[in-house]
Amino acid sequence: MSETDPLSPARNSDLEWQVAALQRQIFLLMLALVVVTATIVFYLFCESRFMGNDLGEIQPQATQIIRSYNQNAQAIQNFRAQMANYAATHQTFQPVMRKYGWAPGATATK
Amino acid sequence: MAINNPRLVQIVRGHLHIDLIADGDADEIFPHFARDMRKDFVPVRQRDTEHCAWKHLRHTALQFNWFFFGHNVVGPLRLLRLRFQFKKSNFFRAKKVDKCCRSAKFPPTMKLETLNGILTFVLGMLVVAGVILAVRMVMLHHDLRSLQREATRDQALLVQTEQMYGDAAAFNQKNPSPELAHILQIVVRPTAATH
Question: Which residue among B100, B144, B171 sits closest to A51, beta carbon to beta carbon?
Fold first, then answer.
């Protein structure tokens, strides 16, 4: 039998060795990929947990601030508008309002 | 049955003459039990092999005409001799094909295939868990950022308005003005959150 015969024992043994080497290589690569993926998943889990804790701590305070602003939003807007009008008619008060971004042409600052 | 009522001597010695009628079974009797079973050994062999009369008109006792189509029950010396004589025969070629087919099963690598399957399953589960965690983290991050941004903006507006109220009150103390005092009275002092 020639060496190019697909049924040759030598060629078959070589093919078997190559298949075994490929399978070992795939196994090692798969193992490395699993380790890397597990690390990333663990990092994502930790980060998600820490972020959830941060959100749980910040949410009550932020909700209180937002609620307080929403309750006084109308009064705040009226006060700032009246102060802007007063500054427009009284030049001595304008330096006080300029500290808060007021411009002479603007009627009210937000 | 003989036709002309022969004597006993004629019947007994009849097998020494060439006769067109077989003195044994008319059916062909093979010297082996089964064929096409090269892997198995057969412990029993009929040594007195006979063929029916139409095959050839003589006995073939103590010969092995069907030997090479039967099972290989020969000893090692006879096997070596047979290999030397029939090296290119179909019998040994079939043996070689069987060896090739047997070695192509790759039995040692089957465990790696199973492990690869398990690792693929684990990898799939990890990827699914990673995607879920990533989506959850993105949503949490978005909520946290939007909440922080809105709270910071509202806090800054409250603090700025409170400072403006204080500056206006101080200005009113230095430069008393009924209009400014009226504005400060009708407007409730904003209370910024201390956090």
Answer: B144
Question: Do the beta carbons of residue B109 and residue A23 sit within 8 Å?
Answer: yes
ipTM, two decimals, is 0.73
Q: Supply B32's token pair.
A: 């082996």
Which of A30, A64, A92 has the CB atom closest to B119's CB atom?
A30
Query: Residue B101: which H helix or E strand, with range?
Result: helix B90-103
**Could A100 and B163 be called an inter-chain contact, meaning their C-beta atoms sit closer than 8 Å?**
yes
Quickly count helices (H) and strands (E) in chain A. 2, 0
The DSSP call for residue B14 is G
The model's pLDDT over B94-119, given as tens digits with 9 standing for 90+, comes to: 455 445 444 445 455 557 778 888 88
Report d(CA B25, CA B52) in Å as an integer: 7
Tell whether the model's pLDDT for residue A30 goes beyond 50: yes
Question: Cβ contacts (< 8 Å) between B112 and chain A: which residues?
Answer: 20, 23-24, 26-27
Cβ neighbors of B49 (< 8 A, separation 6 or more) are B29, B31, B60, B61, B63, B64, B65, B66
Q: Taking CB atoms and an 8 Å limit, are B158 and A16 in contact across chains?
A: no
Rounded Cα distance between A32 and A55, Å, is: 34
